[in-house]
């Protein structure tokens, strides 16, 4: 998997501080606990827990991520990151694609192969995603950064 350039028209993000990283990680922990306890549907969207390894730290990371059915047992995820930048988990996937796993509520984490979709494949996946959740089309319109769409294939 390779990283594409990230630019965006939305408000420029400030530097990540220790406090903001701590807050994000704590929020992820709480959301992951909720997913494991109550299932993966939050605010009308299906969530999974994406297991990655930090690109710089080498530490295991778990991120709650909205997913969409990609067909053939695959799942599609969008690296929207709030519109302003790619989320950290995306860069972790790029750096360590072989250390990726997905956890669906009620199941153990399984290794997965991430693939950034391009061209017609991406367009078909994007159509599927925006039909299921039109809010993603609204988010994309607010940013000139094209959101990466990732297919996760269980290994």
Automatic annotation (TrEMBL):
GO cellular component: plasma membrane
Catalytic activity: oxidized coenzyme F420-(gamma-L-Glu)(n) + a quinol + H(+) = reduced coenzyme F420-(gamma-L-Glu)(n) + a quinone
Endpoints of the signal sequence: none
GO MF term list: coenzyme F420 binding; oxidoreductase activity
Domain of life (superkingdom): Bacteria
Family statement drawn from the similarity comment of this UniProt entry: Belongs to the F420H(2)-dependent quinone reductase family.
UniProt name for this protein: Nitroreductase
């Amino acid at each position: 998997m390779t990283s594409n350039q990230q630019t965006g028209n939305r408000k420029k993000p400030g530097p990540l501080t220790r406090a903001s990283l701590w807050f994000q990680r704590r929020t992820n922990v709480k959301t992951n606990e909720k997913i494991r306890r109550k299932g993966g549907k939050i605010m009308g969207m299906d969530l999974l827990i994406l297991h990655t390894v930090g690109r710089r730290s080498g530490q295991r990371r778990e991120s709650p991520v909205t997913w969409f059915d990609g067909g053939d047992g695959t799942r599609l995820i969008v690296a929207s990151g709030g519109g302003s930048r790619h989320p950290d988990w995306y860069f972790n996937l790029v750096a360590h694609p072989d250390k990726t796993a997905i956890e669906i509520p009620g199941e153990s984490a399984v290794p997965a192969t991430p693939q950034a979709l391009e061209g017609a494949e991406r367009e078909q996946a994007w159509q599927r995603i925006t039909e299921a959740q039109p809010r993603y089309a609204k988010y994309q319109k607010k940013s000139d950064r094209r959101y990466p769409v990732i297919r996760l294939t269980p290994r």
